[in-house]
Amino acid sequence: MDLKYLKMCNIDVQSYLLLKAGLKSVIRTCLPEDSVKKFQNILEKLGVKVLIKRVDLLYGEPPKNPLYNVYISLSKKLAKSAYETEISGNRLAFGKLLGYPKCCVENFIENIKEGSSLKGNPDFMIRSYKKTKTKPSFYCNSLFLFDSKLSNVELKIYLKNLSIFSKTEHLFLIKHIPCSFDCKKSIKIGRVTLKLLKEHEPSLAKEIVNAVKRQVLYFDYFRWIVCEGKINGNEMSYKKVFPYKSLLDGKFMKKLKQGNRIEIKKDKTVIMSDNKKIFELPKEGILLDFT
């Protein structure tokens, strides 16, 4: 498979493999006007059906530059259905066409409604964490994903730092936001995706597992670290911090190198070197063990 064509069309390999295997009905991506015609030819050469529709509103406002939603499927009928369900606001039907579990789509809708009533955007990572009953699965690790998570304000932060986050946004085994990090249906999708990647793109499969099967210190979408270590309750001993960049304070990152343990306390996160305090950040993080 020529990955450069998929990347040019803003399509991730994982979704494409699921589509071609008949395990995903539709992929929806977004392209600028000057790319649409060129990429339509590429997509049709890949043996898929394409439906292109102009985006009238983006986060409730007309986009500054013309954008087009591209619906990709093995069936013209399914591509059309995806477009119709999206513009009608039927999130449940649209999510089903994208291959997302019903429980996860329902949870997403519920979180959006709650966020609207509270006049704030929910942090989907924290919501998934709070609903997790058993050990988090690395198949459900959506740390590097930004699709559908961001508010208008957060989108501006993301775009401003695109050079950082674009380097890791391909590191996932499920494309949707899981209702929990132990969601059985999401884990099933993740397993199938990894199997397909190992068959068709083994180096990418290895890269993804190396990134998502780790411990994570999480603050918000833009501030986190990925570690190799051991989590015990509200503490994490760590041997290595991986170089996946986020927007965490540079001082905090430097102090991590001097320590070997992190303690989560009320309204603060503390870096320790054995029993010696190295640094204190006045923000309470959460520890996630995806190993």
Question: Could you explain how this protein is built, in words?
Answer:
It is a single chain. The model has no long low-confidence stretch (mean pLDDT 91). The chain has three domains: 98 residues, no CATH class; 114 residues, no CATH class; 78 residues, no CATH class. The protein is built from twelve helices and ten strands. The protein starts with a helix and ends with a strand. With 291 residues, the chain is of the alpha+beta class. A hairpin with a 2-residue loop joins strand 5 and strand 6. 41% of the residues lie in helices and 22% in strands. The strands form two sheets. A seven-stranded antiparallel beta sheet has the order 9-8-7-6-5-4-10, with helices on both faces. Strands 1-3-2 form a three-stranded antiparallel beta sheet.
The tally of strands reads: 10
Global Rg: 20 Å
Provide the β-strand percentage band. 15-25%
Q: Please indicate the count of domains.
A: 3
The residue-averaged pLDDT reads 91
- State the end-to-end distance: 30 Å
The helix/strand class is alpha+beta
Helix content: 40-55%
List keywords for this structure.
291 residues, 3 domains, three-stranded antiparallel sheet, 41% helix
Walk me through the topology.
Elements: H1 3-8, H2 13-20, E1 26-32, H3 33-45, E2 49-54, E3 67-73, H4 76-87, H5 91-97, H6 102-117, H7 124-130, H8 152-160, H9 162-165, H10 184-200, H11 202-212, E4 215-220, E5 223-232, E6 235-241, H12 250-258, E7 261-265, E8 268-273, E9 276-281, E10 286-289
Antiparallel strand pairs: 1-3, 2-3, 4-5, 4-10, 5-6, 6-7, 7-8, 8-9
